[in-house]
Design goal:
- The complex is a heterodimer of chains A (117) and B (597).
- Chain A is an alpha+beta fold and 117 residues long.
- In chain A, a hairpin with a 5-residue loop joins strand 3 and strand 4.
- The relative contact order of chain A is 0.17.
- Chain A is globular, with a radius of gyration of 16 Å.
- Chain A has a single domain, classed as 3-Layer(aba) Sandwich (Glutaredoxin).
- In chain A, helix 3 packs across helix 4.
- In chain B, the strands form 5 sheets. A 5-stranded mixed beta sheet of chain B has the order 10-9-13-11-12, sandwiched between helices.
- In chain B, a hairpin with a 3-residue loop joins strand 3 and strand 4.
- Chain B starts with 5 loop residues before the first strand and ends with a strand.
- Chains A and B meet through helix 1, helix 2 and strand 2 of A and helix 4, helix 6, helix 7, helix 10 and strand 10 of B.
Chain lengths: 117, 597
């Protein structure tokens, strides 16, 4: 019988494994803000762009939602995080910008500096 | 733009400054210049990182390499080895880190977040709130496991008391004491309640905290259940937060599936479960006794205290009620220690506070700062100041229960006592910045309109008094103010404060009284000169055409009531008896030819 701390450590290890097996470390992680405020600013459409891109064959991307980071005036926000690199934070992401992020950043690795926070 | 290769974050907390971090900053800049790296390396300042005993702290990104006890002599080595040759200086690396610093791994180089310290919001914007794996992977529910396995309920309460945490709902009652009172009661049933009935206009701290990281609230509540001997938790949240409710439901379901909620939590002999109760959005239900009535199925009305809910609460049983932010602080206190938590903040107020920064500032948003941060730091350093070159006029804290502080209070340190001393309150965390374009009388009217609407009607002073105050303020803004109105407002306000039963009535006159105290001349202008200096009270405005008019006719075309007369290329005229002062002519004129006075 495991103690509570042993139980939670086991659960954590399993959770970390599940996350890594989805490509957490090996890919570009894309976080789309999906709190009420972000959704009101249009983040659902932005999320759809990324989902669609993955459905259309975009690989090496770990797509996740996130809560509100607190940057109301720059929402919707999207982060692209790659292990060992400085996380890139985009603000005021429209569906059009999201499509450009897919084409330029996710596919070609180009950071679109003018949209970063 | 050239890509930044390294981003350095230098801790700018008080302890690190005392340890010469400013000198380090200069040395770093000089050293970067020497190697010609100024273009590819950026230096950022952060608020206290909470690792003061290892300070000064320098973080190098990417990689989140953290150097501690950095001395000026170490700078050349760090620059030459790490930034030039990409080899970290292992002898200086420290691995101590706090739970909340995870946030800064992603956002540490954004200046908006620099002065912040994210304890409650540590996972907001970092993890997927709908995936318990994300929470578990960041030491989620470890504090609960630690409490269950290695601490007695008394030790948990002692830890919370040691932290100095005070209720984040606004009143600031010491959380540990509240827990202790409830724990001491003997009863067959006890309840733990999360008060998520956030109702201040313009405040959204609780919603964001729940939407960004629901599990931390659950964890705090389960720990409290263990500490006070309760088996049941209830989250009281308003129905107008559908996404927060959905995420809480998902979180509760996932926690049950993992054996974290339900019978025998994490294999221990402690059982606890949580359910959600929806409120219909009445402001008064944020008051704890009204909230309890609402959960019991009665009308949401407060009752006199004592007995306090800790003795006789929900269904007559001992009940522990805390705010969302209070709950979110608990796991950090247990993991990093109450002693550490008490090092953050001021003498009387420990830890951090979340504020919803709104109004006339560049960067609106949700900010979490250590207690003791000044209003100026929040509004100017984090908020980026007032847009469009306007002048700061006041900051409103505490929503409809709080007050307006003018510029002379900008250097007030934020804690429960100093805000009260300045004439406002901490409140639940609304912070509205006001510039010269806002009318203080109109602002007071807005808040009193809100409270008179939300008054439950139980006490006459609150029900009738706020209504009368609203009427007086309305007539002042309509240009029909009478001499003596200010004194009447003051008398009424003091009386309502003294004779109301609950916090709603006791604090409802605050926005009016504090604006009278700090902006009395504006009230006097409205009453005696029939003038609104902000140009907001429509009834006191008049629009006239001045000599700059070229006779383009734009105002004539847009005027909805045909109050503008004039022939093309000649100066136009506004008929004052027809004008409804909508201001459309003023907006449309390209030649500044309309004077608003």
């Amino acid at each position: 019988m495991l103690t509570p701390i042993q139980t939670i450590k086991k659960k954590r290890a399993e959770a970390v494994n599940r996350i890594i097996s989805k490509g957490y470390l090996s890919t570009k992680r894309v976080y789309v803000g999906m709190a009420t405020c972000e959704i009101a600013a249009g983040s659902k459409d932005v999320m759809d762009v990324f989902r669609q891109a993955i459905a259309n064959g975009l690989t090496d991307v770990y797509l996740s939602q996130k809560g509100c980071a607190g940057r109301c005036n720059l929402e919707p926000t999207v982060e692209v995080v790659e292990e060992g690199k400085i996380p890139v934070k985009y603000g005021r992401v429209t569906p059009q910008r999201a499509r450009d992020i897919v084409e330029r950043h996710l596919k070609k690795g180009e950071i679109i500096a003018e949209w970063t926070i | 733009m050239k890509e930044t290769k390294y981003k350095l974050t230098l801790c700018d907390g008080t302890a690190c400054i005392q340890n010469q971090s400013k000198v380090l900053h200069q040395a770093l800049e000089a050293e970067l210049d020497k190697h010609g790296l100024r273009q590819s390396v950026s230096i950022h300042l952060s608020g206290c990182l909470g690792i003061c005993q290892k300070g000064p702290v320098l973080i190098v990104n990417p990689g989140y390499i953290m150097y501690g006890r950095v001395q000026v002599e170490d700078i050349p080595e760090i620059v030459e080895s790490h930034l030039v040759r990409n080899k970290a200086v292992t002898r200086l690396i420290i691995t101590e880190d706090h739970l909340y610093n995870r946030f800064f791994r992603i956002f540490g180089d954004v200046d908006f977040f620099g002065k912040q310290m994210r304890i409650c919001l540590r996972n907001c914007g970092v993890i997927d709130p709908e995936n318990i794996d994300d929470y578990l992977s960041l030491r989620g529910y470890e504090a609960l496991a630690k409490a269950l396995e290695s601490m007695t309920p008394e030790e948990v309460i002692a830890e919370v008391k040691k932290s100095g945490l005070r209720g984040r709902g606004g009143a600031g009652f010491p959380t540990g004491l509240k827990w202790e009172f409830t724990a001491k009661q003997t009863a067959d049933d006890k309840y733990v309640i999360c008060n998520a009935d956030e109702g201040d206009p313009g405040a959204f701290m609780d919603r964001s905290a729940i939407e960004g990281d629901p599990h931390t609230v659950l964890e705090g509540m389960i720990i409290a259940g263990y500490a006070i001997g309760a088996k049941k938790g209830i989250i009281y949240i308003r129905a107008e937060y559908p996404l927060a409710i959905e995420r809480l439901e998902k979180a509760i379901a996932a926690a049950r599936e993992h054996g974290i909620l339900g019978a025998n939590v994490l294999g221990s002999d402690f059982s606890f479960d949580i359910e959600i109760r929806l409120g219909a959005g009445a402001f008064v239900c944020g008051e704890e006794t009204a909230l309890i009535h609402s959960i019991e199925g009665h009308r949401g009305m407060p009752r006199p205290r004592p007995p306090y809910p800790s003795v006789k609460g929900l269904f007559g049983k001992p009940t522990l009620i805390n705010n969302v932010e209070t709950w979110a602080s608990i796991p950090v206190i247990l993991l990093d220690g109450g002693k550490w938590f008490s090092t953050v903040g001021t003498e009387t107020s420990k830890g951090t506070k979340v504020f919803a920064l709104a109004g006339k500032v560049h960067n609106t948003g949700l900010v979490e700062v250590p207690m003791g941060t000044t209003l100026r730091e929040i509004i100017y350093d984090i908020g980026g100041g007032i847009p469009n070159g306007k002048t700061f006029k006041a900051v409103q804290t505490g929503g409809p229960s709080g007050g307006c502080l003018p510029a002379k209070y900008l250097d007030t340190q934020i804690d429960y006592e100093s805000l009260a001393k300045a004439g406002s309150i901490m409140g639940s965390g609304g912070m509205i910045v006001i510039d010269e374009d806002s009318c203080m009388v109109g602002l007071a009217k807005f808040f009193i309109e809100f409270t008179q609407d939300e008054s439950c009607g139980k006490c006459t002073p609150c029900r009738e008094g706020t209504k009368r105050m609203y009427e007086i303020l309305t007539r002042i803004t309509e240009g029909k103010g009478q001499p003596g109105d200010i004194e009447k407002l003051e008398r009424l306000g003091e009386m309502i404060k003294r004779s109301s039963l609950c916090g709603l009535g006791q604090s409802a006159p605050n926005p009016v009284l504090s604006t009278i105290k700090n902006f009395r001349e504006e009230y006097e202008e409205h009453i005696h000169s029939k003038k609104c200096r902000a140009g907001q009270c429509a009834a006191m405005l008049s629009y006239t055409v001045n000599v700059k008019c070229v006779g383009c006719g734009a105002c004539k075309r847009i005027c909805p009531v045909g109050a503008v007369e004039g022939t093309r290329k000649e100066k136009h005229l506004i008929l004052q008896d027809k004008c409804i002062r909508c201001g459309q002519c003023y907006e449309v004129c390209k030649f500044d030819a309309i004077t608003k006075a």
